[in-house]
Amino acid sequence: MKKRGVGIAAAQYPTGLAGGGDVSQAYVKVNPDGTADLFIGSVDIGQGSKTVLAQMAAEELGIPYEWVRVHNQGTDTSPICFGTFASRVTYATGNAVVEAAREARSILFEVAAPSLQATPEALDAADGKIFVRDDPGRSIGFRDVANMANIFMKKMIVGQGLFARDHSATDPDTGACDPFCTMAWAAQLVEVEVDTDTGQVEVLRMVSAFDVGGAINPMLVEGQIEGGAVMGMGAALMEDLYPHYPTPEGQPTNLNTYIIPTAVDIPKKMESVIVECPSTAGPYGAKGIGEMTANVPAPAIVSAIHDAVGVWIDEIPVTPERLLRALEKADS
Amino acid sequence: MPTLEFRVNGRDHRVEVEIDSTLLEVLRDKLRITGPKAGCNTGDCGACSVLLDGILVRACITNALSVQGGEVITVEGLARSGKLHPLQKAFHEHYGSQCGFCTPGMLLAAKALLDQNPTPTVEEVKEAISGNLCRCTGYVKIIDSIMAASKEMSKREAG
Amino acid sequence: MQRTVVGQRKKRYDGLAHVTGETRFVDDVFIPGTLTVKVLRSQVVKGNIRRLDTSAAASLPGVEGIVTHKDVPNNAFGLVPDQPVLAETIRYRGQPIAAVAAHDERAALKAIDQIKVEVDEEEPVFDPQEAMKPGAPKVRPEGNCYMYGEHPCRKVVFGDVEAGFKEADHIIEGEFRTNPVEHAPMETQVSLAVPEGKGRLTIYTVSQSLLFHHGLLTGILKMDKDDLRIAGLAEKALHDWKDDVHVAFRSGTVGGSFGAKNDIHADHVTALLALKTGQPVKWRWTREEETLYSTHRGGWHIRIRDGVKRDGRIVARQVTSIRDAGAYSALNTYVVDKHCFMVSGPYSIPNVYVEGYCVYTNKTPSSSMRGFGVFPATFACEMQMNKIAAQLKIDPWELRLINAYREGDQTPTRRVLDSVYLIETLQACAEKAGVKLPDRLASMTSEKREGAA
Q: Which residues of chain C carry a pLDDT beneath 50?
């Protein structure tokens, strides 16, 4: 028999290293042709940090996104970054990038100010133009200023930025510490259909709301939400590295025995809502949600299974075998 | 060592291969065509997918000598005279690629589908790429990309 | 000033390179004369190596170098430096014992076959619950629980949990388990180490933490940091690249990680072999190695005891969690920290008592994975919330909304919260899902509680 049920879950996730002390640095160099090179030490593991960091640099410099090149050559030439973990890169490296870009921009504003008959403080930049904030008609091409500054004014248009949080020691008796930069929030509703004959669970619908503080690129945020949702679903229903846990017997050895979700396994309908409650110190209010997207589905799915069949299963993954055993036990 | 003669992305190749070499080893190690990836070497992940005479195969479990005289298309052969294939364009525009490791194989699985069935349903797309694993995207935007490419290609066909 | 770039759905920076196949991953970097690496892994779960003889293997044709524990200058690494690169004492099945660099895979595998190992086997322990008992076989000489200061567990103590239980109308208990999960990135561990002369070495790495791993590697090799360059990405190699490298979109990328590349898995071994042979060496893990012997999300066992008022307000939460770390610390001590700091959930609970144990067992070391200890915390906490809702017959949305953190609330670690938005996020989810919340819930906000400072 097929039975349907609904479950929800909420979550928090901290941005930044739990013990603090993590560092991210950035440099920005503006070339005579107005393009910019952004140097970072953060690795893009697929989540898209190069994209969002380039967007931030472009925004601050006032140039098109396409004018920014991102470099992470390695430890001999790149600025320092502790690493791509703790959902920290958008927030931590992002702050460094914003600072670096602003510093580079301020040099250009000084160069541009006399030609615009304004003070550097009165200037702004966007879309490849530097202009007077209160009178945008008075403008000069970003390229012209960059060329003038680099070649004729003999200036080096380089900005540097740093994000560094104090180390926070943990009190071993009470656990008191400051374990994050900011906190992101999430809520999810899941609808499942349980086949009580086979033990198969199908996720019909997943509605996710994530507070990302400020979405630097909504398309990439959706990518994180969707990817995390499916990874979380895999952990909830399919993936088991130790089928006879805690012993290491009968472990899967390959992707034909360690089963991760394929395209046919994903929820039938997935909807995402991006919520934005700006963090106090993140770039454009950003918070990190890279990891937490994978955390929410499991409790929502397992609670939906309870709603469908009236049985709580307190151990994941809820494989068909585990589900059928639980149903059998509940029957007897 | 036996000699393998075959065509890859429109170019003829003649290479010496071991009798147990796989097509993936020949492409990557001998010809330095690195689009096809070694994700598992057991035919489970699909990262090495290529087209062999128009049919989707796993290069990692295809014996190299079995493609004697055949024609192979890898991701490097998708763009024609500098113009992206509509699938490549769609994957770029619709964020069908995150880390990018599965992308070359995924694109060929999608091409194999659209070559056979130019206007697939979402369910048919899912089925067609179900042998290609992606751990980043949750497949949603990959499916969106393939549907968009299908639409774009039918429009062109009609125009 | 209106933003023109931030907030826009810009296309992925390296997206074009991905779809054309131009993106270079580490395995796509080829340097002439590169040797292939294979590693001998222990068949035994636990014991001490009595005899390790590599002489027959070393004399095979095609074999250029073999390293064992004797070749590792400082054979202990990690956040807690307890893990050997190549083992002398075996603590899990599959632990690397020796590594071979040879002209091709065939020669390397043959050499691995010819290495003779004899191990005095000892009794292993797999179950963290058993490992915690007095008299259990010792996974590690210093004990099977990591010591947080004087305590065998991380403690978070906030308010007075016993007083909270007394005040409660209901005591609701739950016990939860999350089984180990593998990251399964599509790209397995890969490392290419290239000696540059004068002791300099370039490593093409898949590391997601360059600075951290740089420190660990220099510690293992005892080199000056200046002499070791980790090329984060496979871009702009100085070697046999054609003139097509200059296109900026070709910056390399890691082929997925999810925490799998937060620990050094291969760079130490390639570094040792490159230095020993003076030749470039590449080690790409097989999928089987990745599945069985890379780090993973370790198993968890979590017990929760909640004191709840009749109206659903949670006034006390006690949690005992056990993390199966496997044989070495890796990042587990930190994973347990984060778990303990977050396991009370996004809820304002005045009395919290958490004990989180990081327990060693004779299994592949677990470590970081997307969610970093908060994955099991969220599972246990949210399952518990739904159970409380069911037992007290309170709507699960309402239970969360009335307990949700508000602006200015303090976490059990004494951090004062800002930009709190759980209530609004729940409401947004309900709205999108078509769930109609009653007015009193729909009108709630995360503003400071009445009477709060």
A: 232-251
